[in-house]
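Hello forum,

I keep getting stuck at the same step: I have a sequence, I want structure tokens, and every attempt I make locally crashes halfway through. Rather than fight my setup again tonight, could one of you with a working pipeline run this one for me? It's a single chain of 434 residues.
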Amino acid sequence: MPAATGGPPSTEAARRAVEAVWRIESARIVGALARYTGDFELAEDVAQEAVAEALVTWARDGAPDNPVGWLLTTARRRAVDGFRRRSALGERYGMLAGRLAEGETSSGATAPPDRPDDLPWDPDRIDDDVLALMFVACHPVLSPEARVALTLRAVGGLSSEEIARAFLVSVPTVQARITRAKKTIAAAKVPFELPPSEERRERLGAVLSVLYVIFTEGSTATAGDRLLRTDLAYEAIRLARTLAALLPGEPEVYGLLALFELTAARFPARTGPDGEAVLLEDQDRRLWDRSAIRRGLAALDRASAAGRGLGPYGLQAAIAACHASAPSVPETDWERVVLLYEALGRVAPSPVVELNRAVAVAMANGPQWALPIVDELIASGRLPGSHLLPSVRGELLARLGRTAEARAELELAARLCRNARERSVLLRKAAALT
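Reply #2:
Ran it on my machine without issues. Output:
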């Protein structure tokens, strides 16, 4: 990214250049630094310091021809300075300084004189670095909230401000989660490396669950005045694609990717011109992203081809595929959806799965068959405080002609709902029941 000609470099141009490089390459940068230093927290910190220095230097001098190499070299020098200051680690500093001597641009060796512009990492280790970074950021020693924050920061390259805005929490809260996460990883002596193959599949579940949480919040925000947070959802898709490329033999990774693609395909039709929510039965299906549907179906085929049977994410993707392939709500294969929810309830039981099964049963067989499922959820005290239960119950009661009860349920759902767009739909439905 050479500097623009015809005038001095601008602060705004430098900021855009730094943000672009960081968003695309941050995982590889932090991963390479973590491997070099053996210290994840130090790697993330010096990478951020390099970004801050780039904002100043690139505004003055213009972006360098090799911006990734510039960031890595700068961060590397900061790491060496940090080890130099920590006298107790003198021996380790000596080893690091020898390995990362001035002008060195490859892993553990000085750059050949005829290749002075090589990127300062081992190109054969790039995939491993990114994958290791995902596993470290999603390590089981961290809380779910810390895993999400650290993944978006270290692997996704999002700033604390972007993460806070996406999840409607304060910037200090996000920063505290990230700081605690790095300290926890250091205290637990989590190595920056891929877990052994026998542990990888077990640990993979934590990585997939973090991406699922990120995407779910992006596809239907839990609070605020926007139904969708598409930037967050698309970041989850990007990370899922990266994970699928790095672990092509894991079918559930493709199941997750398929679920994301098929769900995101409906984004263009889910909101109206003013951002209001548009229900599935009212969506203009011509607006659905057919390319995303094709990608989702292809990923679902990859998940099915392994012959192990679909996992929880693959089953959800298969349900999404039923919706994506149907010309309308009435023409959806609801019997198959019911069967898929029953299978999902066996492999990953949860009250939300059971509630969704009730909706599918109502569409396939009638509301009278679904209402007992919902009432059982209420009687067992599951999903307390959620607007989902009264919302579904209100819909079922309305279809059964029990108007007054339906209105009360929908009004209760509106009071419990924290998302303004969803709340307005519930109130509109309640008002329409006369």
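Residues 1-7, 101-119 have pLDDT under 50 and may be disordered. If your local run keeps crashing, start a new thread with the error log.
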